[in-house]
Amino acid sequence: MLRSLVRPSAVAAAVPRAAWTATQTSSFSTSHAALAKPDNSKQGRKVVSQNQGRGGGAAPKKPAAGERKALRKRIQLSNSNALPVPGLEDARKNDLAKPENIGLVLSIPGQVQDQLRAVEAFKATQFWHLFRNASTLVRAETVDMVQRMEAAAANKQTLRLVYDGPRISGKSLMLLQSMTHGFLNDWIVINVPEAQELTTAVTEYAPIPGTSPTQYMQNNYCLKLIKAIRASNEKLLARLTTAHSHPELPQNIPINSTLLQLTNAAKEPEGAWLVFNALWKELMQPKGQVRPPVLFCLDGLAQVMRVSDYRSAAFELIHAHDLALVRLFVDALSGASAFPGGGVVLAATSRNNSPAAPSMDLALNQRLAQIAGAAEVPQRDPFFRGYDERVLAALPTVHVRRLGGMTKAETRSLLWYYEQSGLLRQKLDEATVAEKWTLGGHGIIGEMEKASLLTMRL
Amino acid sequence: MMASSRQPLTAALRCVRPSTRGQWLLPLEHGFRALRLYDSPCDGRRHLSFESNSSPSRGWEGFEKAANIKAAPEIDLSVPTDPILDIPHLRALPASPSCFSKTPFFNDLVLRFERLLRSYGNLPTLPPSEVERVAWKTSKDYKMWTGEIVKASEFGRCVMIMKRLHQIHPDLKPMVVVKAIEPFKREVQAFANVPTPITIDRFGRALGVGRRKSSVARAWVVEGTGEVQINGKVLSDYFGRMHDRSSAVWALHATARLDKYNVWALVDGGGTTGQAEALTLAIAKGLVAHEPALKTPLRKAGCITRDPRRVERKKTGHVKARKMPAWVKR
Which branch of life, at top level (chain B) (predicted)? Predict the structure, then answer.
């Protein structure tokens, strides 16, 4: 600030009178003292809190730490204001595999709901909170997927499947339905509900000693995953026994102890990766006790098909495939590892908050063209050099399904469910079905929910 | 007009011509028949005159012909005439029954149309909805045409008769009536400007064009199952707002045809609301091409009339179109 531009009157007003008179006698120059900050400790203006209102009442209580997030992420699976749907049945063991059930809405049994909740299969953005009970529509795609799952389990093979499709077309719901089938049929279900939690540098990581190239473990996430596996598959894990001793674990787990005991070894983040790795080895164990089929799901595939946000010790970005947990999934998806008791590796892409993944898109489109038997398979763009060879190598044999809209019959069934729940304020006829189907972008399930549930004039 | 034409008129009444120019005394009737209206090139007014070099407007000439007003026959000079004994009437008999009224030609016209109606009024007519729509001349047009001032109400009565004559079935309408009516039709007929009907091409597509604000939409409507694609995208992808989706397919929804047609559309310009409402009109037009009977319900649903409102222009001295700057004390 230029001193010459300061008005003398302003300076005089800002400086307390006592300071002014004190410096006047002692110093030759007055400007230093005049420009020094006035001492607000005693005479300064009282700072009024912004939270305090005009009336001077107490500030409103702020929500506790994590309270808002808990509210945001809350999953509500029933609503007593909704009408119970007459004739709605619980899904049983093979219901999702029966073609005659296409177009039927089935309720998810209470125990399975708990298991699904434990593995975070429900999402806060889905409309579970509007209905009396969590129920799901059996689509033709559901039956197709579940039949493939059954075939893989029967043949002790590993089905590797990726679901792609437009926004809110029900890709995550397909994962949920596969997990429902898995829980109903005593599969071991492992679910990564949001792949971005693994690669966006929000969870702790550390290099695994003795690996070359260096792999990274994510102990906190592993612990969370083990807890989810334990909570959801407890009975099954109690039945299965270990085939190896695991000397690397902090706790001694003798051979023939249950897998539940093995998972119980992970109590703290330290060593959680080791426990998870041990569990994985046990599930991959080809000899000895017959392992049940395993379902490994991951939502948001593009997040693990890129270079992660983590940095190495040399401050270089770490490829997502160098994260050990991701590595397990990618190996299973690419076919490098297979479940001895049969199983399914299932992934869904996401259209929300998804990074650009040109390599993944190319690989999926190539697979789609190959599966459809198209004359021309999409080729690499010769002028683009951002392709990721590791990603392209992971996906060439995977099975890809593109999810689209529902048929009119399925739409009718879904709207019937809405109507019976008291949520459709319209007469349900062909005209209504046609309207919702068109407004919902040719039967895109999420758009139809918007068209019929969010536009209610209550 | 009357003042300036008084001299020849009195001359006619006196049955004489100016002594300087003519030597023959004409009968009174001849005198009246020889009177002509002509436009003076000097002052632009109309005059009555015996002169034949006047140049009345073509339309009026034609009307004269149609009105059967004839000039007096040529005088046979070979037969000597007794100027007194040869006068057929002692009182002059004007050619027009409305000679002494203020607006003689219009009166003649009315009488003539009345006569035509008396003669042909019993012919079968078309129902009003099927009669060819015609824009008639107004009393103002008539004044411009003839220079004769007619009350609007009187002219309206005349037009009523014309309209009634016009209603006669075209196959039976006599040529006299057609010719009598013809000059009273306006030269520019807005009703003749009929839009080209939308056709359905060999693929079953009807192309409708709609506009709203600054958006233009072209919609190809085909029979189908209710699929809608706009600029290559599904309806829900193109319009994020549910209201826009509804208004885009409103024409199909309002007529319960949503599951009967497919729409493939191209939209350009404007914002989302404009584009959605332009689509309403475009789809409605395509739909009417398929089912013309739907035009009335679509009009009731508001899908036929183009909303002409645009952004109002900004004016000088205003902050926006109408907003004025804030008042400032000095």
Answer: Eukaryota
Output the pLDDT for position B193. Answer: 87
Contacts by B220-224, CB closer than 8 A, 24 or more apart = B220/B263, B220/B264, B220/B265, B220/B286, B221/B261, B221/B262, B221/B263, B221/B283, B221/B286, B221/B287, B221/B289, B221/B290, B222/B261, B222/B262, B222/B263, B222/B264, B223/B260, B223/B261, B223/B262, B223/B290, B224/B260, B224/B261, B224/B262
Taking residues A263-278, what's their average pLDDT? 95
> Which residues from B are below 8 Å from A447, CB to CB?
236
Which of B225, B227, B242 is nearest residue A439 as measured by Cβ atoms?
B242
Residue of A nearest to B242 (CA): A451
For strand A307-311 and strand B228-230, is the pairing parallel, antiparallel, or unpaired? unpaired
- Inter-chain CB proximity B234 and A444 less than 8 Å: yes
In this structure, is the dihedral angle defined by the CA atoms of residues B170, B173, B174 and B175, taken in order, positive or negative? negative
CA distance B226 to chain A (A): 6
CB pairs under 8 A between A and B: 46
Tens-digit pLDDT profile for residues A314-373: 999 999 999 999 999 999 999 999 999 999 999 999 998 899 999 999 999 999 999 999
pLDDT tens per residue, range A108-128: 999 999 999 999 999 999 999
Q: Report the amino acid identity of residue A356.
A: A
Helix-strand-coil split of chain A, %, nearest 5 = 45, 10, 45
Distance CA B254, CA B218 (A): 20
CB A126 within 8 A of CB A312: no
pLDDT in tens, B271-286: 999 999 999 999 999 9
Quote the pLDDT of residue B56: 43
| CB contact (8 A) between residue B245 and residue A442 | no
Other residues' Cβ atoms within 10 Å of the Cβ of residue A209: 8
One DSSP character per residue, A321-332 reads: GGBHHHHHHHHH
Whole-number Å distance between alpha carbons of A19 and A39: 9
Domain boundaries, chain A: 88-402, 408-453
Cβ within 8 Å, pair B236-A431: no
**Residue A91 CB neighbour total at 10 angstroms:** 22
Closest Cα in chain A to B252: A435
> Is B206-300 assigned to CATH 3.10.350.10?
no
User: Which chain A residue is nearest to residue B233, measuring alpha carbons?
Assistant: A441
Q: Which residue of B has its CA nearest to A437?
A: B226
pLDDT at A454 (0 to 100): 84
Q: Where are the domains positioned within chain B?
A: 1-95, 104-192, 206-300
Contacts of B34 (CB under 8 A, 6+ apart): B12, B26, B50, B71, B72
- Using an 8 Å CB-CB cutoff, list residues of chain B that contact chain A: 225-228, 234-237, 242, 245-246, 249, 253, 256, 258-259
H-assigned helices in A185-337: 196-199, 219-232, 234-239, 259-264, 272-283, 324-334
To the nearest whole Å, the CA of A161 is away from the closest chain B CA by 26
ipTM: 0.80
Give CA–CA dist A11/A33, Å, rounded: 10
User: Distance between CA B234 and CA A300 in Å, rounded?
Assistant: 23
Q: Are A181 and A146 within 8 A, CB to CB?
A: yes
User: How far is Cα of residue A360 from the mean position of the Cα atoms in its chain?
Assistant: 19
The confidence band for B92, taking pLDDT boundaries of 50, 70 and 90, is low
pLDDT digits (tens, 9 = 90+) for A65-94: 999 999 999 999 999 999 999 999 999 999
Q: Among all chains, which residue has been given the structure tokens 């190598």?
A: A393
